[in-house]
Each structure stands twice: as structure tokens, then as C-alpha cells.
Design brief:
The structure is a homotetramer of 100-residue chains. With 100 residues, chain A is mainly α. Chain A has helices at residues 5-9, 19-63, 68-78, 82-99. The N and C termini of chain A lie far apart (64 Å). The structure holds a DNA duplex (16 and 16 nucleotides).
Chain lengths: 100, 100, 100, 100
DNA sequence: CCCGGCGTTAATGCAC
DNA sequence: GTGCATTAACGCCGGG
């Protein structure tokens, strides 16, 4: 029996344990796990679709003459705090000089 | 100038090249690139949100007593062809015996 | 029997198929697979050790006041062709202006 | 100046600050950083080579008729505690039944 | 059209 | 326990 069933079943002693009751309890918990699983699977599917959409755009952009590699670099840059970028750049420059 | 502008400018010769015209052309193309970039960023954001949603469900499931690790294994199994799972299992068994 | 045994066994017909012979063949092939597996496991272990060594150096460097994050950025930069870096930088700048 | 130089320079006030002295201090610290960087780069290179070696073995094994995918599964299994494998298998079975 | 390599992203382990 | 660093998995991309 699943760990999660324990709490659900803790108070069952006071009722006569019928087959029907047991089936219900199992269904309930099976349903709960199944619900989690299916929700996750649904979201994963959506996520995958978005991935495809993104790929499509890169492909289209590429056929318009834009370089996906540069686009990715730009996007990555944009999704960082400008201050952080500046800071890292400064420090990097310092270290770069230090090691020659 | 971006590579992609070339084709767009191929037919521009018939018009006098004014600064205003040039600005327009650049805007058009800037807009095109910007459009690609922003659409991708939008989709990436949605994708990230879905990732968070999935994480949330795993967290909730865990607090219900289900083991995320086992859930992941189950989900992975379900998203494969049953035949493939069977096949891998069989082969794995074979190899396992082979190496002791 | 493993797929790989097929070729090894192709010429076996000319000999009487004894249990001993079969055991030998299986041992040979089991050994081959086992050898592959164990060599890989050995290399993976060495790889892991190197990873630990690297971590140790970062830790020591950090305690000397150097920022591991910047060091990583510098190392990444150094392991790329300078020309490629320059090129990407140039294009990135172009795109950056284009999208504002 | 690098953060790490601070401690090295804390006691410098008592000496006349000569250009030569400063150059030495900087060299010392530059060397230290450079040493870290180069040691890490060396180790990373070795690590990469080991990765290539592993790839080579998989390739060779494949050309001997062994399926790399199955081999990877086996290796992963072997690098886990047998008890843990058993446990996961058991739980997975339980969950599998639960969701149907 | 398949396959190996690469880059990105999630998952585990660790250190604070 | 929370965040981070490493490692493994996944998906994408270019070449044969």
C-alpha cells in the first residue's frame, strides 16, 4: 500500500471493512496519484510543443538570413540583469589582464 | 547591415535613396529581428512557467506521500513504447547475466 | 545469446557442439562485454576524480579571494578560438543595435 | 586590484612603496591566479580525453554488436546500491498498478 | 535519413 | 533547509 494511504486509512478501523469500502479507498488514492501523473504529462506535452514553436521561429529567422547562434547569444544576454552583466564583464577584464 | 536586408533592398534602386527611406528600411528589418526575438522570449517564458508548474505538482505529490523519484521513473516508462520497454528490459537482463 | 556472438559462431558448425565448447564461447563473449563495461567504469571513476580535483582548486582559489564565477567565465573564454569570439562579439553587437 | 591582494598588501605601509616592489606583488598574485587557471585547464583537458576514451569504447562495443543504450543502462544499474535498485523496482511496480 | 556532437535544461548531491 | 555546483538527460543541429 502506498505511503500516502496511511493517513487516509488511519480512521478506518471504526467502520466495518467491506470490499466496497476498500475499493473506494483504493480508487481514491489511485485517482490521486493518477491525477498527479496525468497533470504532469499534460504539462510536459505543452512544454514540448513550446519547444517546437521556438525551433520553428529559429528556423524561419534563419531562412530570413539571421544567424540562430547570434540570436541565442543575444537572448541569453537580454535575460540577464544588465548590472550583473556589467559587473561580470569588469571583473572578467581584471582577471584577463592578470593571467595575460 | 544585416544579411537579411539584402533581399529586401534588392528592388530599392528604383527609388532615390533618401535618409528617410533608409531609416524606414532599417526599422522594418529591425522590427523583423525584434519580432523573432520577442516571440522566442515569450515562448521561453511560458516554457519556464510550465516547468515551475511541473515542479509544483511534484512538490505537492511529495507532501502527499508519493516519492517524486518513483513518479519520474513511472512517467518516463509511460512515455515510451511498451514494446521498447519490454525489449530494453530483456536485453538488460541478458547483459546483466553476461557480465555477472 | 548476444547478437555479437553470431559472427563468432558462424564457423562453429564444423566442430561437434560440445557443452565445453559452448561454455568457452560464452565465456569469451561474456568477457568481452565485461571488459568493455569495466573499462568504461574505470574511466568514469578517473573522470570523477578529476572533477573533484577541479572542485578543490576552485575552492582553494576562492579562499584566496578569487571569484570562481569569474574564473569560470575566463576559462570558458580562453577555450574558444579568439577569432570566433571576436566574430560572435561583432555580430552580437550588430543584432543588439538592431533590436534596441 | 584583485581582492586577494588586499591581505598581501596589508603590511606594505611599513616599506617604501617602490615600483619594483609593486611589480613583484602583482606578479606574485598574477602568477597565483594564472596557476589556478592553468591547473584547472589541464585537468579539464584530461577529463575531456577520458570522455573521448569512453566514447571510443562505446563505439567499439557497438561495432562488436553490443547496444550502447543497454550498456549504459547496465552501468547505471551497477553504480547504484543493489538494495536501492530493488527498492525502486518494487515501488515502481506499486505505482504502476496504482495508475493502471 | 540517420548518427554523432553540442548546447541547453532538469536532477542530484553538497556545502553552508 | 536553502541555494549552488556538478552531473546526467534531453532535444537540436550539422554532416555523411
Amino acid at each position: 500500500m502506498l505511503q500516502s494511504d496511511i493517513e487516509d486509512d488511519e480512521h478506518l478501523g471504526q467502520y466495518p471493512e467491506t470490499k466496497e469500502r476498500k475499493a473506494k479507498a483504493e480508487n481514491f488514492n489511485n485517482d490521486r496519484l493518477r491525477s498527479y501523473i496525468e497533470r504532469i504529462e499534460r504539462l510536459k506535452a505543452e512544454k514540448k510543443n513550446l519547444g517546437s514553436d521556438i525551433t520553428d521561429i529559429f528556423t524561419e529567422a534563419k531562412s530570413s538570413g539571421y544567424d540562430p547562434k547570434v540570436m541565442r547569444a543575444l537572448i541569453k544576454e537580454r535575460e540577464q540583469e544588465p548590472a550583473a552583466v556589467e559587473e561580470l564583464e569588469t571583473m572578467l577584464d581584471l582577471y584577463r589582464r592578470a593571467v595575460g
